[in-house]
Design brief:
Blueprint lengths: L11 E3 L2 H8 L5 E6 L12 H10 L6 E7 L5 H9 L8 E5 L2 H10 L5 E3 L1 E3 L38 H4 L26 H11 L20 H15 L21 E2 L5 E5 L9 E2 L6 E2 L4 E4 L8 E2 L4 E10 L6 E9 L20 H10 L12 H5 L7 E5 L9 H8 L1 H15 L3 E7 L3 H11 L5 E6 L8 H9 L14 E5 H11 L7 E8 L6 E6 L4 H9 L6 H4 E5 L6 E2 L13 E6 L16 H5 L7 H7 L4 H6 L10 H5 L6 H17 L1
Helix pairs in contact: 8-11, 10-12, 11-14, 18-21
Subunit structure: The complex is composed of six subunits: RnfA, RnfB, RnfC, RnfD, RnfE and RnfG.
Function: Part of a membrane-bound complex that couples electron transfer with translocation of ions across the membrane.
Subcellular location: Cell membrane
Length: about 675
């Protein structure tokens, strides 16, 4: 086996003892900020650089009035909050131990306070002093050329190597006009900015120690353009997130078609968040389409109805598509007659019904969240707090999935009737429908309906994953932040998926229980990818057989089957499992012809932090998870994780972060109960 050694790519080192002593001769009370490093094997939490600083200073360390280590100091969004929350009133200056980007960031944030660079950036390659710069992990405007001798402590935190078009280190050239560079009039004169900032800090510029060098390098315009493009797309809309390949082209234009009914339906008793439903039928009973076959148990639960007519042949355990454990299911043999339960009757005047009557219908018809969470809708709509806004989620940001898109295109009238029903229940006047801009047809159609309704607004959102997460969508559209461990109702909002609203319409107006749903079937190697109206309880084997014409016995050797999208979907291990209310899609992916890279040690690259929409630090979940310290993950707010999979998707060390996160969240929940 090939042995792999990890190179330490830490991008800075403490300045020499002489330089540090020289800096401390100028200060009286200094607060130290130090970056916890990136691109270095993550073995333990320590304050190595700060401890070295204290060792160098000796008695002079008494001038330090406080210190704080910050993960990925250059992360503008997260680190800004942490730095501004610090009490720096007892200090007259700030010392920074980081690469040049971290120093620039702090200096810009604390513009009127002297900021001293206590470290030099380390060149990590032959072209380390390029005009683009490679240091730091954040996509911000600050850059660092890794020149090996940081002058930011002399220049007020503005880098002349990077920000001056001429790269001048020995002061201004005298050619600036109206504050702009004579070489590039689109660029501000860096040296004028340096003098202005030093003036604010009541400091003078001293350039005695500047070493003149030749930094001439070939143009990297293309790389610079791509970097700007990446920065723009990553920062749009909300913090974090990704732009995975959408892969929706195979199904986005395909109309919803009914999938053939199953010969045998496998209807699980657990189709919702909360307690499992209790069977109301037994072996040998005959049932009709829409007949209630299991009743809700407890407050958070939902009844279940038969999706076909026929005979109950057993109640037995099958592999559940979510838990991947054996759970009870009602097995019904289809008689092909399609007899409808007599109690299913349309209601043409729902507006005459009371709020309580509408809630009862939604509960009795088994309506749950169809975005994947499967939370009983009647519970969500019966909020103990005042709701002022209804948000309809039409983002469908997962790759491959396009069922919600087709519902919006093909059933806009029904969606707006569903919205009116929910408005009546919640007594809200303001409704927003959030749709990502990769669904222009849906936006156009729903906007035409919204024009007739003054209280409904369609909001086009820049496409970005995971924009459909409730908390993210609320913040993106309304600017409201759901508190930690809180719910949307805590900020006066209810969020419903468009599929759920459509199901509410069918339940109230058509009298139809939730016995079918739209499922996107897509992926690789299929003959019939599409959006299908599928009966709840349809075995996966039936769908795969329909999509491929036939199913090979060794299907799982060649393909991976995921219920849901590729990001948050659940990998399946049995074709005998079946569609449940939360099945948004079935995605078939070819298994890689080569073995995946083995999991490596975390190197603190910071990518997981950059993409986490919940502003968390996922690297600690792997760090403590590998050591079995589940309780420590709670300190890093693991309960706030929405399990979107962004961190695992981008992890350069291929660490199964979600496995650790799920275990740590389960531990946290059990600790609360205990």
């Amino acid at each position: 086996m090939v042995q792999t050694s990890l190179v330490d790519y830490t991008k800075f080192r403490l300045k020499s003892k002489e330089e540090i002593k020289e800096i401390f001769a100028e200060v009286n009370r200094i607060f130290i900020l130090f970056c916890r490093k990136c691109y270095k094997k993550f073995e333990e939490e320590n304050e190595e650089e700060y401890d070295k600083l204290l060792e160098i200073l000796g008695e002079e360390s008494r001038k330090i009035v406080g210190h704080r280590g910050i993960d990925f100091l250059c992360n503008n969004f997260l680190s800004k909050k942490k730095i501004l929350s610090l009490d720096l009133s007892n200090s007259d200056s700030v010392g920074v131990i980081s690469c040049g980007i971290g120093v620039q960031f702090v200096a810009q944030l604390l513009e009127e306070r002297p900021v001293f660079s206590l470290a030099d950036s380390i060149p990590q390659s032959g072209n380390s002093t390029s005009e683009v710069g490679y240091h730091g992990i954040s996509l911000e405007k600050e850059r660092c050329a890794g020149c090996g001798q940081c002058y930011l402590n002399l220049t007020g935190g503005i880098c002349p190597v990077i920000d001056c078009a001429k790269g001048l280190l020995n002061g201004p050239c005298g050619g600036a006009k109206n504050g702009k560079c004579e070489v590039n009039p689109d660029v501000d004169c860096a040296w004028e900015k340096i003098y202005e900032r030093l003036k604010k800090q009541k400091r003078n510029l001293t350039l005695e120690s500047i070493q003149i060098r030749d930094y001439a390098k070939p143009s990297l315009k293309l790389k610079a353009d791509l970097s700007v493009q990446n920065q723009t797309s990553r920062s749009e809309g909300f913090y974090g997130g990704l732009h995975p390949l959408e892969k929706k082209e195979k199904t986005s234009s395909k109309e919803i078609k009914s999938l053939p009914e199953p010969k045998v339906a496998v209807i699980f008793l657990s189709q919702h968040t909360g307690q499992r439903a209790k069977p109301m039928v037994k072996r040998g009973d005959r049932v009709k389409v829409g007949q209630k076959i299991a009743e809700a148990v407890g407050l958070i639960s939902s009844p279940i109805h038969s999706s076909i007519s026929g005979k109950v042949i057993s109640i037995e355990e099958r592999i559940h598509p979510v838990s991947q454990k054996r759970e009870p299911a009602i097995i019904i043999e289809n008689d092909g007659e399609g007899k409808l339960e007599p109690s299913i009757q349309p209601c043409r005047n729902f507006e005459a019904l009371s709020k309580e009557s509408l809630l009862k219908i939604i509960k009795e018809k088994g309506i749950v969240g169809l975005g994947g969470a499967m939370f009983p809708t009647h519970v969500k709509l019966k909020s103990p707090k005042r709701i002022d806004t209804l948000l309809i989620n039409g983002c469908e940001c997962e790759p491959y999935l396009s069922g919600d898109n087709r519902i919006m295109i093909e059933h806009p009238k029904e969606i707006f009737v569903g919205i009116r029903i929910v408005q009546r229940i919640l007594e809200v006047d303001k409704v927003f429908i959030g749709i990502e801009d990769n669904k222009p047809e849906a936006i156009k159609i729903l906007s035409s309906f919204a024009d007739r309704s003054s209280d409904v607004e369609v909001v086009s959102l820049k496409t970005k994953y995971p924009q459909g997460a409730e908390k993210t969508l609320i913040k993106r559209i309304l600017g409201r932040e759901v508190p930690e461990k809180g719910l949307p109702l805590d900020v006066g909002v209810v969020v419903l998926n468009v599929g759920t609203v459509f199901a509410i319409y069918q339940a109230v107006v058509e009298g139809l229980p939730l016995i079918q749903r739209v499922v996107t079937v897509s992926g690789e190697g299929l003959n019939r990818p599409g959006n299908y109206l599928v009966k709840i309880g349809t075995p996966f084997r039936d769908i795969i057989r329909y999509s491929f014409d036939e199913v090979e016995e060794d299907f799982f050797k060649e393909y991976e089957l995921r219920m849901g999208g590729p990001m948050m979907g659940i990998s399946q291990r049995s074709l005998d499992s079946s569609v449940i209310k939360g099945t948004t899609g079935l995605i078939i992916l070819r298994r890689y012809p080569v073995k995946l890279s083995e999991e490596r040690d975390c190197i603190r690259c910071g990518r997981c932090v950059e993409v986490c929409p919940m502003e968390l630090y996922p690297l600690y979940y792997a760090f403590y998870g590998k050591r079995g310290k589940w309780e420590k993950a709670a300190e890093y707010k693991v309960e706030n994780c929405i399990e979107c999979g962004c961190c695992e998707y981008i992890c350069s060390s291929k660490i199964s972060l979600l496995n650790f996160i799920k275990k740590e969240k389960e531990y946290a929940r059990s600790s609360i109960k205990a």
